[in-house]
Design goal:
Elements: H1 5-22, H2 32-57, H3 64-92, H4 97-101, H5 110-130, H6 134-144, H7 148-180, H8 187-218, H9 229-237, H10 239-260, H11 278-283, H12 286-292, H13 295-313, H14 333-336, H15 338-341, H16 350-379, H17 381-385, H18 388-407, H19 415-439, H20 443-473, H21 481-484
């Protein structure tokens, strides 16, 4: 195995430039005030989290046993969040064929390409997994000073890196298994489902891990679980032996990931074969089929069904909330249906386009929510009558992901755009939730605010459709600095970089 790290680094820099030009400057982020607003809201959220953690932990500054307890329990939750982030990244990358095509003409091997993408996947996973622990880390650095660094390395940095690379190795092993079974075209979907099952198993183990750690602290005993092995070895054998051993394990896992990466890139099937009743098939339109047959939708359906069964057996929350995962398929829906809007005579109003996009999500939700309600009613009638908020949450998720797919369009199946859109919406929703909690508004006021926010989401999405279609058809004249310099008229058909797509499909 030969991996030229210099070539991987060059490809990573190229992707970074692509990210800056094609992600940070598209959709709603074209506007400077919007970018300033998003950054300000993110800074406000981070400041609020760190301030709350600082004042909560300040009385515990001198009790190092409590700090170790906090970091050990944080490690248990950190491993969970790394798994969730890993799955989210893999689902977003399932159909990132357009991103991969950027490097097909470069003199790099598939393993060198994998190293470059591994850096981006690791970065995205770190952002998601670290969002919940950043307040603890910053507060520890402020309150404990340099003595907090060993805790951070032993309980946060090294466990997160080991977990991520272990999942990467397991993902590649599963890919090899699916290749032997001649299922390479849907290997990514199957691997995501297998890792989701692993996540469900870990969730059940978490319920015993945290009480064990807490009981050991209360009885002043030294007790560790397998998740906190690095922290235990750090305190038992010293920093240098534990750190050196962890680095060796990281190197071994990284090498295994590269060795198991196939020499030849296998294209992932964008759509899968879905068999339905002929009568039902006549009721569905092209937008519906585009969503129902998507590989992302299939992965989301499998995860939603697994969550539904899990919540049904362990009723920590209403099982119908599991179907909010179905809305993940809508994150690429607007760009994946662009070809339908380019057909001759397909020009319709933005409201009709939005209606078709949401209708597809409603059809998908109904296909699983209706049987789900029947199952919930047969198991527990009390849960059935409490399913209303969960169904509204599912619809809200559909509206939100549809808006993200429009405002942050995933050009060339770019998963970074989707990730950025999810991050921005997540930050805004978190700040909104904190504000509503501080105001202590009555339920009717909160419901009215959420309804107004949903209407705003819909309105902004429709405006995004109008803007996108206007730019595509050049209805507002020539677009761009280079086009304005031309003496002839602009090309009225945006073929999306696909030279094989004839102009007639652009409505000319």
């Amino acid at each position: 195995m030969t991996v030229r790290l210099r070539h991987s680094a060059a490809l990573a820099r190229m992707l970074l430039v692509f990210f800056r030009r094609r992600v940070l400057r598209i959709g709603v982020l074209r506007s400077t005030p919007v970018r300033v607003f998003v950054v300000s809201v993110a800074a406000l959220l981070l400041g609020a989290m760190c301030t709350a953690a600082y004042f909560f932990l300040k009385p515990l500054t001198d009790d190092m046993a409590v700090w170790r307890l906090l970091f050990d329990t944080s490690t248990v939750s950190l491993v969970l969040w790394v798994q969730i982030a890993f799955l989210l990244v893999k689902v977003l990358f399932i159909n990132a064929e357009g991103m991969l095509q950027l490097s097909y003409q470069l003199p790099v091997t598939n393993r060198e390409r994998s190293v470059a993408f591994l850096l981006y996947e690791a970065t995205m996973t770190t952002i998601v997994a670290g969002a919940g622990l950043i307040s603890l880390v910053i507060s520890a650095l402020i309150l404990l000073g340099p003595s907090a660094v060993p805790y951070i390395f032993a309980s946060v940095v090294l466990p997160a890196a080991l977990t991520y690379l272990t999942l990467s190795v397991l993902y590649q092993l599963l890919a090899q298994l699916w290749a032997l079974a001649r299922l390479s075209r849907i290997a990514n979907v199957l691997s995501v489902l297998a890792l989701f099952a692993l996540l469900a198993v870990y969730v059940t183990q978490m319920q015993a891990m945290i009480p064990d750690i807490s009981q050991a602290y209360l009885h002043k005993r030294t007790r560790h679980v397998w998740v906190t092995s690095v922290s235990w070895a750090w305190h038992r054998y010293g920093a240098m032996p534990a750190f050196t051993t962890a680095l060796i394990l990281l190197a071994v896992l990284l090498s295994l990931t590269l060795v198991l990466t196939p020499n030849q890139h296998v294209r992932q099937s964008r759509y899968v074969s879905v068999g339905v009743n002929r009568r039902l098939s006549g009721l569905l339109g092209p937008y519906d089929w585009c969503l129902l047959r998507s590989a992302q939708t299939v992965a989301g359906v499998a995860m939603a069904m697994a969550l539904f069964v899990f919540f049904l057996l362990r009723p920590a929350m209403n099982p119908m909330w599991a179907f909010t995962v179905l809305s993940l398929g809508g994150l690429y829906q607007f760009t994946s249906t662009q070809g339908l809007r380019m057909l001759p005579g397909a020009k319709v109003s933005a409201w009709r386009v939005y209606g078709r996009l949401v209708r597809a999500q409603v059809v998908l939700l109904a296909l699983f929510a209706v049987p789900g309600l029947g199952i919930v009613a047969s198991v527990d009638g009390h849960l059935f009558f409490q399913s209303g908020p969960a169904l509204l949450g599912c619809m809200g998720g559909a509206v939100m992901t549809t808006c993200i797919s429009i405002v942050f369009p995933a050009e060339k199946d770019n998963p970074f755009s989707v990730f950025l859109g999810l991050s921005v919406v997540g930050v805004v929703l978190a700040v909104t939730a904190i504000g509503l909690g501080m105001l202590s508004l009555p339920p009717w006021a909160v419901l009215g605010f959420l309804s107004a926010a949903s209407v705003l989401f819909v309105w902004y999405a429709v405006q995004g459709i109008e803007s996108s279609e206007s730019r595509r058809r050049n209805e507002k004249g020539t677009v761009g600095r280079e086009v304005r310099r031309r003496s002839h008229s602009a090309d009225h058909g945006d073929r999306g970089g696909n030279a094989s797509l004839p102009h007639v499909l652009d409505g000319r």
